[in-house]
Specification:
The chain is mainly alpha-helical and about 120 residues long. The chain contains five helices and two strands, in the order H-E-E-H-H-H-H. It is about 55% helix and about 5% strand.
Length: about 120
């Protein structure tokens, strides 16, 4: 009989594979922006909703709505929301957009393999 698969080992592997994007704040503290694959239950749905809000508000040029949704998105994926929140309100839209683009690029959900090997 093969050795049982360890959930703890799988969890450790996933934490390395889908590592959070570290962000150095102006305060000198570091906050991790977690991959969608590593979020708590419910937060993934919130992220999906907020990405939709950002797209819709952006296409309608409602910049305040875009900023608000971007800030809520970053707080949702942050591993230390309180630490991030204290600085987030001062960030310009370009900073928010750049950070979200880097987060998306660095934490993309991989495509499932279609091979059955």
């Amino acid at each position: 009989m093969p050795q049982p698969l360890s959930i703890a080992a799988l969890r450790a592997e996933a934490q390395v594979t889908y590592e959070a994007l570290p962000v150095l704040l102006d305060s000198g503290a570091v906050v991790g922006l977690q991959s969608v694959l590593m979020l708590d239950d419910g937060d993934d749905a919130t992220v999906e909703q907020l990405l939709g809000e950002i797209t819709t508000a952006g296409s309608e040029n409602r910049l305040d709505a875009v900023k608000g949704a971007m800030r809520r998105l970053l707080l949702t994926v942050a591993d230390d929301r309180a630490l991030l929140e204290s600085e987030l309100a001062t960030w310009e839209l370009g900073v928010l957009m750049g950070l979200i683009e880097r987060w998306q690029a660095g934490t993309q959900v991989p495509e499932a393999s279609s091979s059955a090997s």
